[in-house]
Amino acid sequence: xxxxxxxxxxxxxxxxxxxxxxxxxxxxxxxxxxxxxxxxxxxxxxxxxxxxxxxxxxxxxxxxxxxxxxxxxxxxxxxxxxxxxxxxxxxxxxxxxxxxxxxxxxxxxxxxxxxxxxxxxxxxxxxxxxxxxxxxxxxxxxxxxxxxxxxxxxxxxxxxxxxxxxxxxxxxxxxxxxxxxxxxxxxxxxxxxxxxxxxxxxxxxxxxxxxxxxxxxxxxxxxxxxxxxxxxxxxxxxxxxxxxxxxxxxxxxxxxxxxxxxxxxxxxxxxxxxxxxxxxxxxxxxxxxxxxxxxxxxxxxxxxxxxxxxxxxxxxxxxxxxxxxxxxxxxxxxxxxxxxxxxxxxxxxxxxxxxxxxxxxxxx
Length: 364
Description:
Blueprint: E1 7-11, H1 14-28, H2 34-45, E2 55-62, E3 71-86, E4 89-104, H3 114-127, E5 132-137, H4 142-145, E6 150-151, E7 155-159, E8 172-174, H5 179-196, E9 205-209, H6 213-231, E10 239-241, E11 247-254, E12 264-272, H7 281-301, E13 306-310, H8 314-324, E14 331-332, E15 338-343, E16 353-356
Helix pairs in contact: 1-2, 2-6, 7-8
C-alpha cells in the first residue's frame, strides 16, 4: 500500500456502481437473487428525495490504478434540524445531513486499511458540506469512534407478535395516504420545540433527523419491494393512531428470505404529542399500549418474529411493560446498529452533542 496521497475518493460511474452492488450482493442480499438485489437498490435509490443530495456511491481508487475499485460506500442526504451557537448566538435551523452506509471492501482488498483511508477522505469532504453526519456501525463502538464518529446511546425494546383478541378501542390503522399530514404535523412540532429550546450549559449542540414523509416513504418502498417478491402482496397498513389523535406510530416490516428469524416489524417513529393536558398519565400510557398492541397484531399477521422500537421513552417503556405483565428490558446494543455521529462544527470531536429522537426512521 502506498501513501495516502496516492488515493482518490470519487463518485462511482454507473458501471462502477453496478460493480460495487454485485460485489456486496452476497453480504447483504438476504436471500435475493443478484438481479433482485440490484433491482432493490435501484428501486429504493429512486425513492430518495434529491432535495437533500439523494444517494451517492463513493469509491476509493488510486493514481496508480485509477480504474480499480479498492472499496466503496454510499451517502444519503437527510433533512435534519440543529440547535447550536452560530455567528455568536444560539440558532435553531434546518440543515442537510448525510448518513453513511454500505461500507464495503472486496475480500481480495481487505486488511490493507482501504476502508479507513476512504472514510477519512469522505469525512473531510462531508465536513465542507454539512455540520454533522452519521452512520450505524455493525462493527461495535470502537472502529468508527477512532475515526471520529462518536457512538451515541443505541437501545431498543422488543415485543412478541400477538393475535389481538379484543381490538384496541378507538385505534385507527394508518395507510400511506394518511402519512403526509401526520409527518408534517410531527415535523412542525419538532421544529417549534427546537425554536423554543435553549442549550444547557454543558451542551454544544442538539441535533435531530426529521421524519418527513419522503424519509418514511423510503423505508416503505424497501418493504414493498421485498414483500412483493416474498409473498406477492404489498402491506397496506403502515401504522396506527390513538383515539385522541395525539399519539401515533409508523412501522415497516423487514422481509428476509434467507433467514426467517430476521423478519421483524420495526416501529420507525413513535409520536407522543403533549397537546392533551386533560388526559391523565395512565390514559396516555394506555393509548401507547394500544398502538403497540396494533403493531404486535400486524407482526403476527405477517409472520414477523418480533416488534422492535428504538430509543423508547419512559411512557413507551411503561406501556410495553404493561403489555408483558413485567418490566420490559431496554437492550443497549454493543455490536450492531450503533448510532454514531461526527460533529463538524465548533469544537469538532470535543463538542458535546445530543442526538434527539434517535429512532429507526433515520437509519438507512
